[in-house]
Write a structure and sequence with these properties.
- The chain is an alpha/beta fold.
- It folds into two domains: 138 residues, Aspartate Aminotransferase, domain 1 (Alpha-Beta Complex); 239 residues, Aspartate Aminotransferase, domain 2 (3-Layer(aba) Sandwich), CATH 3.40.640.
- It is 36% helix and 14% strand.
- The strands form three sheets. It has a seven-stranded mixed sheet with strand order 1-9-8-5-4-2-3, with helices on both faces.
- Helix 10 runs parallel beside helix 13.
- The mean pLDDT is 96.
Length: 392
């Protein structure tokens, strides 16, 4: 790597792309616009309407689960996942140190204690041996996270959970459409939580889903997400004389029917969109293979990645220079997020020394653009820019 190469845009050379190639763009087409317009025309624009119900049914069928419940975010889904259990205050929940804050918020909002576990340095997934070593007599649950869309090792996690009778919340926010051992992610934990944020492979702008095969959990979530009322059964069965009852404490987590309609149109093409991501990823892997100092993230054995993110692992001492050099070339690379213990709210939970592999992963990780609307020219420009920066 020649940091003084005058051909590099960071040193005054001509950039590979005159227009910035963004790190992410949502994929929205005319059918998405039409779906939203038709939903508005029905005048049923509030929550838990016909389009929401249809989206839930089609999502459940796609994932191979009994229940998919559409909510306003994956963060809300995670909060509900713990609210339904009523664990004793202060009970411990194990989770990977390298994850977004939402993975922890669900437990914290329910007065539970999070215990951070180090991750594998080559893909950011929770380290199974270190997770097992963190178990105490207060442990009640495990949060498994599919970082970047790469499924966690759910067989190993579930084996430990079954041994100790732990509850498993599978944070699948980034892995919609990924496969694990021949099944879509979403049916491996007691509860799974998806995100449909604008950055995700399937987007409703803002939104998420709690999915489960547990009938009791599903029925209580229907009440909790609708302010603690039995409105869901009221709308479904209409057995009362024009009113529904307040049967529990809850919050307003339902979604507008407009966004349910968008979810339907997005789901129809999800596999095609993920296939385009796969094609781009395979091109990256083929063209960037063998570059000294550049490695790819390890994909869990037996799984198929939805390529929500494409991460490259670079020399730690050069990471930020490489990021700045790629941006100068017009390629909007970034570092995503930091290990939880590195953040102000969580820094009492451990030091860098306690989480060496989290730090190794973080210190080497860079993202490069991957999304369906990237053109073949964009992809080649990204590849050329990476090779240019690495002097490969």
């Amino acid at each position: 790597m020649n940091k003084h190469n005058k051909e590099l845009a960071i040193n005054g050379g001509i950039p590979v792309s005159k227009e910035p190639i963004l790190i992410h763009l949502p994929f929205l087409e005319q059918d998405d616009f039409d779906a939203v317009t038709e939903a508005i025309k029905t005048t049923f624009v509030s929550g838990d309407g016909p389009a929401c119900r249809r989206f839930e049914k089609e999502l459940a069928n796609y994932l191979g689960v009994k229940h998919a419940l559409f909510v306003n975010s994956a963060t809300s889904a995670l909060e509900l996942a713990f609210r339904v259990k009523n664990f004793p205050k202060g009970s411990e929940v194990l989770m990977p140190n390298f994850t977004y804050t939402s993975s922890a918020l669900g437990a914290l909002y329910n007065d539970l204690k999070i215990v951070l576990v180090d991750v594998y340095a080559d893909n950011g997934s929770i380290n199974i041996e270190k997770m097992e070593a963190a178990i105490t007599d207060k442990t009640v649950a495990i949060v498994a996270v599919d970082y970047g869309g790469i499924p966690a090792d759910m067989d190993a996690i579930n084996a430990i959970a079954q041994k100790h009778n732990f509850y498993v919340v599978h944070d699948t926010a980034q892995s919609v459409g990924s496969n694990y051992k021949g099944q879509k992610t979403g049916c491996q934990g007691d509860v799974s939580t998806f995100s449909f944020h604008g950055t995700k492979n399937l987007t409703t702008g803002e939104g998420g889903a709690l999915v489960t095969n547990n009938d009791q959990i599903a029925e209580r979530v229907k009440i909790l997400r609708e302010k603690g009322t039995d409105k869901h059964s009221f709308l479904t069965d209409n057995k009362t004389r024009g009113y529904y009852e307040y049967v529990d404490i809850g919050m307003s987590y339902v979604q507008s029917d407009i966004l349910g309609a968008l979810g339907i149109s997005q789901l129809k093409k999800l596999d095609n969109l993920n296939e385009r991501r796969r094609q781009i990823a395979e091109t990256y892997k083929r063209e960037l293979a063998g570059i000294e100092g550049l490695d790819f993230m390890r994909i869990t054995e037996g799984s198929e990645h939805n390529w929500h993110l494409f991460g490259i692992l670079v020399p730690a001492e050069d990471k930020y220079w490489i990021m700045d050099a790629l941006r100068a070339e017009g390629i909007m690379s970034n570092v995503h997020y930091t290990p939880l213990h590195r953040n102000k709210y969580y820094n009492h939970l451990g030091s860098d020394e306690k989480f060496p592999d989290s730090m190794s992963f973080f210190n080497r990780l860079l993202r490069i653009p991957i999304y369906p609307s990237l053109t073949d020219k964009d992809v080649q420009n990204i590849i050329f820019a990476v090779k240019k920066v690495f002097n490969a």
